[in-house]
Amino acid sequence: MTEATPPGQEPEIRYFFVRRPVMAAVISIVITLLGAFALQRLPINRYPQITPPAVSVTAFYPGATAEDVAQAVAAPIEQQLSGLDGLLYYKSANSSDGAMSLTVYFDISRDQDLAAVDVQNAIKIAEPQLPEEVRRNGIVVTKAQSDLLFAAAITSDDPRYDAAYLSNYTKLYVEDEVKRIPGVGNARTFGQLEFSMLLSLDPDRMAQLGLTVGDVASAVREQNTTNPAGRLGREPAPSGTQFTLPVTAQGRLQDPDEFGNVIVRAQPNGSIVHVRDLGRVTLGSRNYDQIARLDGKPTTFLLVNLRTGANALDVRQRFEVRMNELARNFPPGVHWLMPYDTTPFITESIHEVVKTLAEAMVLVTLVVFIFLQSWRATLIPVLAVPVSVVGTFLGLLMLGFTVNVLTLFGLVLAIGIVVDDAIVVVEAVQRHIDEGKSPRDATIQAMREVSAPVVAIACILAAAFVPVAVLGGISGQIYKQFALTIAASVLISAFNALSLSPALIAMLLRPKAKGRGPLAWF
Questions:
Q1: Tens digits of per-residue pLDDT, 219-258?
Q2: Contact 238, 311 (CB under 8 A)
Q3: Which of 109, 148, 429, 516 has the fewest C-beta atoms lying within 10 Å of its C-beta?
């Protein structure tokens, strides 16, 4: 017969943390520190990324109507998009100035970088069917950034600086600097007011001469080029050549007069038709369809989008610092401000959730003290809950989540759940202490009784939330972070109930004194 192990002589590994409370404290401190470090690295957003990833395609067909753009540009590209992996739908907008804007939306589980590559490959297949002018202007494929973080306005009190000047200044000296800020997904100047050479052609005059817009565009394209002319005297050179001189030819046209002198047609009889004979050439803006104003003043807006996974609050702070540095070189009277900013909503919503988190912690502590009627017993759940809550941030970082309203709400709900494990252990130990056992023996006996139930409760709670995380679509993305946050905190709480809580109980709990006053009845 095998001799039974006397009580209190069980294998040490089963009650390792009761016998070694320092180890339990060290593990809990490490979990807390890792959670605190993870919190510093976690992106902070108002909501998780729930919008389907999108890819934007833009093209330009000069001189074409909206119907021509739809038939000659949009239709061939759309035919090649069908069958892309994870494609949801696409929509195109064609304008009368020859511009096409096509946005392709993919399933939320699709990687945006890979989706952009697929769209680029589809456009390469469609390019032979597109007009030559469209291919020459280029087809731009970019990852669409639908989440506008903020809009900065650059305005002027000096009437010399109009909207076109401010737009060009922003595009040349500000836009690229903002794009270099870590966390910025995209920055673009609102509208198309950048300086361009405008050719205002007279249709009656062109009809008399038998010319079209295509003839003028072709002439300007051929003559507005950079033509390298080579060098004189380079080897092999005739004997006696002493110098090698580079030949500088006229490059691209610079002012309206040079554009006006472009020859559109030359006849054998010596007659020449210049661009200036067909209309006016002026320096203006590329497009006047979109003009921004702020308080009635000429303004240009710089729209900034957040990169996926970036910290919105950090990007906002870095942007302000960089803009203040750039503002030192602004022309006199030019300044910047931020009329549209989404970060205050993020800050305020997170502040309210953190406030609720603190209130829940205070309420849980008060309830535990009222029912246990011992500050020693109350101290144990109070010490265990922060380990579970802060340690959950390490799980958020490993799962690729962000600090947002949903994850913080999950932590608020988790406080009321994770405190139960510590309370169950405290009550079980206190019962054995009241029966006359020492705190150490009472803890060992209680852990023999409640270890399996604590593990079972944690597994059941995790099983209740984890299936919600596998839902698909936008609803699944919303529930995923909420559910897994609670599941992670519950599992950490169960570990604490088997390690930190019994170690603290063995050190802190004492037999209860006889109750006095009205509370003694309970």
A1: 888 887 777 777 777 777 777 777 777 777 777 777 788 8
A2: no
A3: 516
Main-chain phi, psi angles of 56, to 5 degrees: -105, 135
Radius of gyration of the chain (CA): 36
What are residue 142's DSSP bridge partners? 56
Residue 34: its pLDDT value, please?
A: 92
How many helices (DSSP H) and strands (DSSP E) are in the chain? 18, 15
Which stretch of DSSP H or E encloses residue 294?
Answer: strand 292-294
Nearest-angstrom CA–CA distance, 191 and 289? 8
| pLDDT, tens digit, 9 for 90 and up, residues 313-323 | 888 899 999 99
- pLDDT tens-place string over residues 11-27: 444 567 778 888 888 88
Task: Determine the Cα angle at 422 with ends 417 and 428, to 5°.
Answer: 125
SS3 306: strand
Residue 454: alpha-carbon gap to chain centroid: 39
Type of residue numbered 11: P
Token pair for 51 = 């919008």
Structure-block tokens of residue 117:
């590559």
DSSP bridge pairs for 92: 102
pLDDT in tens, 368-402: 788 777 788 888 888 888 888 888 888 888 888 88
pLDDT reported for residue 1 = 37
Asked if 413 and 486 touch (Cβ cutoff 8 Å), the reply is: yes
First to last CA, the chain: 48
Backbone angles phi, psi at 397, to 5 degrees: -65, -40
The answer to whether 338 and 152 are in contact (CB under 8 A) is yes
Distances (CA, A) of 374 to 97, 331, 369, 423, 515: 78, 69, 6, 12, 11
Closest CA to 379 of 265, 507, 489: 507
Residue 40 pLDDT more than 50?
A: yes
**CA-CA distances (angstroms) from residue 399 to 83, 107, 395, 447?**
31, 20, 6, 32
Integer Cα distance of 318 and 126 in angstroms: 41
Give Cβ neighbours of residue 137 (< 8 Å, ≥ 6 apart). 59, 60, 61, 62
Tokens 């909420």 belong to which residue? 482
Q: How many whole angstroms separate alpha carbon 515 and alpha carbon 506?
A: 22
